[in-house]
Amino acid sequence: MKQTTTTKLKTKKKIYIPVKNKFIISMIAGIAWMATSIYFSVPWIKDLSLYVTMPIAILIIAGIAYIPGYMNAFMVSSLLLDRQPKVKNTSPKVPVTILIACYNEEKSIENTVNYVATQDYEGEIRLIVIDNNSKDKTAETAKKAGEKMNLNLTVVHESKAGKNFALNTALAHVETEYVLTLDADTLLHKSALRHIVARLESSPDDVCAVAGTVLVRNSRGNILARIQEWDYFLGIASIKRLQGLFQSTLVAQGAFSLYKTELIRKVGGWPDAIGEDIVLTWSFLSNNCRVYFEPMAVAFTDVPTSLKHFFRQRSRWARGMVEALKLFKPWSQPIYSARYLTGCNLFMPFMDFVYTFCWLPGLVLAFFGHFWIVGPATLFVIPLALLQNFVLYTYQKGVFKSLNLRVRKNIIGFILYVLCYQLLMSPISVWGYIQETLKLRRIWK
């Protein structure tokens, strides 16, 4: 009797929910949450309309409560439904070319090359380092590191400044089916290449790229770096997982992503854009190709430790999103999930503007007892955000355990990330939107 019961348990199939059904469930969860928020916020709208008129009151509250609440509910539901399929072959052997574009990376390139050399990948690794008009000894240092580690390393030169020009120059030298881009200050976990190639090898033919997981290496630097550690570990990772679930990852980031070489050539290579990786990814999606995300493929990068460099980086990301929206209209995307996810980005400038010019002044007013803008209904977003972070933390901790990594204790960074990070991000993003609208000079560093 016991054997029969055991056999039944073993043969019992897990409930399979198709991706499209998961999408519908998440949509319903988001709409239900937003409907509940609207119901409870009616008195708030009436009070605020006495000062700014009813239509403006609705727009303000939509930007700081309704739309963010919907998006958070959609994300939490998606994360709870996400089940990463197993790869077919955990030890692929297909040859891969890694491209590292460098500008004055003499201090970091040797370490990056060393981490490439210690990969547990069984296939051939070809490494191309592109010296993008460096003023230091980047090229010489890379060559010496390659020789020391017995790597198949080639150095090419591109005098025209710009990461896209550097990568396109190297693309002409790529002879392998897959090509991986890696930033010069980004270090690969020893199994990163194996996991990311295994994911692409196990994917359907219409998958053209896989984004890896990028986390913070220098989180002990200062408090800004500690806050960003949680942004990469929870915020960016949650968005990647959500998009990866629906097979439409919106950014196969240049810092660490794997591509099918022929597809990059088909879309004309990396574009001349400040967000070249965003525009490249959206061009894939517009060509009816899907983009995956692999959480087990982990790399660690340095994040800005000064407000000046952080400001430039994040405003550049905001500009890149606007560039992509101008080039590829969401409603023209052939894949339903790509239409939806790129369409969500249409609301980002609106929410950032409302947050910057309405919520932040409203927060100041609330300290003086005037709850016209920041009121009780805004609290509806908080439990969702905490639930989202808890779900992601639990999942990420499991990934770290599988990779023999340990989650750093960074309590102060987490508290500041939850309470204060958006205070920085929205104004910076607004400046990025303004920069792109006015076509101001691009600054990469």
UniProtKB/TrEMBL annotation:
- Kindly give the Pfam families that the UniProt entry links to this protein: Glyco_tranf_2_3 (PF13641)
* MF-aspect GO terms: glycosyltransferase activity
Q: Transmembrane ranges?
A: 21-42, 346-367, 373-393, 414-434
Q: Which InterPro entries match?
A: Nucleotide-diphossugar_trans
In the UniProt record, does the keyword Membrane occur? yes
Instruction: Tell me which SUPFAM superfamilies the record gives.
Output: Nucleotide-diphospho-sugar transferases
Give the UniProt keywords, A-Z: Glycosyltransferase, Membrane, Transferase, Transmembrane, Transmembrane helix
Q: Which residues form a coiled coil?
A: none
Report the family membership: Belongs to the glycosyltransferase 2 family.
The name of this protein is Glycosyl transferase family 2
In its UniProt entry, the species of origin is given as: Ruminiclostridium cellulolyticum (strain ATCC 35319 / DSM 5812 / JCM 6584 / H10) (Clostridium cellulolyticum)
Taxonomic lineage is:
Bacteria, Bacillati, Bacillota, Clostridia, Eubacteriales
